[in-house]
Design brief:
The protein is of the alpha+beta class. The protein has one domain: Ribosomal protein S6/Translation elongation factor EF1B (Alpha-Beta Plaits), CATH 3.30.70.60. A four-stranded antiparallel β-sheet has the order 2-3-1-4, with helices on one face.
Length: 121
């Protein structure tokens, strides 16, 4: 009987909105931000924050490029709708690579840097 109740709770949790972050590498930041925001808004999600983080050097070439622009968009969406949004991003030619992750903190909050002790060599 407990397993049925747990399963029902899991299904109900899927309808709750959660905060996500999509980070994308692209050649044209402005175009990528408009593409991402357009797909996010058309899926019924709310864009919380969008930013262009500028050009970043890559560890390995992507489509023969050694440097691409990094953009990020924070948005809220129900878990059940994330897979459809991911498929929309996959078919966009203006986005070279992307990843969608969950986010638990407030996107406006500054991240604290950890103080590191120098290692003894």
């Amino acid at each position: 009987m407990e397993k049925t109740e747990e399963r029902i709770e899991t299904i109900e949790d899927a309808s709750e909105e959660q905060l996500y972050l999509v980070s994308a590498l692209t050649e044209d930041s402005a175009k990528a931000l408009s593409i991402l925001e357009g797909h996010i808004k058309s899926s019924g999600a709310k864009v919380v924050k969008a930013e262009d983080l500028g050009p970043k050097p890559l560890a390995f070439p992507i489509n023969k490029k050694r440097q691409l622009n990094l953009v990020s968009v924070f948005f809220t969406l129900e878990r059940k709708d994330v897979a459809a949004l991911t498929e929309e991003f996959r078919h966009e030619s203006g986005i070279n690579r992307f990843i969608i992750t969950t986010w638990r903190e407030d996107p406006e909050k500054k991240m604290s840097s950890r103080s590191r002790k120098p290692r003894d060599v």
